[in-house]
Amino acid sequence: MSAQLSLAFTEDYPRLAPLLEALDVERGVAHDARAREAAIMPLLEGSPLGAVYIIGPTRAPIGFLIMTLTWSMDDGGIMACVREIYVRPAVRGRGIAPESLTTLVAPLRSAGVRALAVELDLTNNVAHGVYARALFQPRPDVRMMVRKL
Q1: What is the pTM of this model?
Q2: Interstrand relation of 115-118 and 77-87 (parallel, antiparallel or unpaired)
Q3: What is the spatial distance between Cα 36 and Cα 15, in angstroms, rounded to a whole number?
Q4: Where are the membrane-spanning stretches (predicted)?
Q5: Dihedral of the CA atoms 29, 30, 34, 39 (nearest 10)?
Q6: How far apart (Å, rounded) are the C-alpha atoms in residues 106 and 120?
Q7: At what angle do helices 96-110 and 125-133 cross, to 10 degrees?
Q8: Per the CB 3.0–4.6 Å rule, which of 23, 44, 61, 114 could disulfide with 75?
Q9: CATH number of 5-133
């Protein structure tokens, strides 16, 4: 199966909504439909801070990838961050997630992005394997800390 990536727009939300809900259910996150829509809509509307990509056919997505942008002094410029990646359970294990991440590299590089990062749960060995297959390398000297505002 090919990991076709297409930039998502507001008209794609009805097809993305069930996938976003499935991710929340899988992770045990309690977002309601309005909160999910409010969180993703700015990216679908073209915010310069990130993008949403549909994985698979746009009419029947098999997943999605949400990417945001930040600045990295260590990497010398713009850094993209994978915020979420989701592939339907029925098609997992076929290399779709690593292929999607690899497919994203060329357009990011051509747009001047210097690095692609991801935040991982230290205990999620499956995710670590997915990102390792997409050539991500750990930064053992870095641990993210967050202060909610």
Answers
A1: 0.90
A2: parallel
A3: 13
A4: none
A5: -30
A6: 23
A7: 50
A8: 114
A9: 3.40.630.30
Show Cβ contacts of residue 82 under 8 Å, excluding neighbours closer than 6 positions.
Answer: 65, 66, 67, 101, 116, 117, 118
90-120 burial: b if 16+ Cβ within 10 Å, else e: eeeeebbbbbbbebbeeebeeeebebbbbeb
Q: Are 86 and 64 within 8 A, CB to CB?
A: yes
- Write b or e for each residue in 29-61: b if 16 or more Cβ atoms lie within 10 A of its Cβ, otherwise e: eebeeeebeeebeebbeeeeebbbbbbbeeeeb
Q: Are 21 and 36 in contact (CB under 8 A)?
A: yes
Residue 131, token pair as written in the block: 């990102």
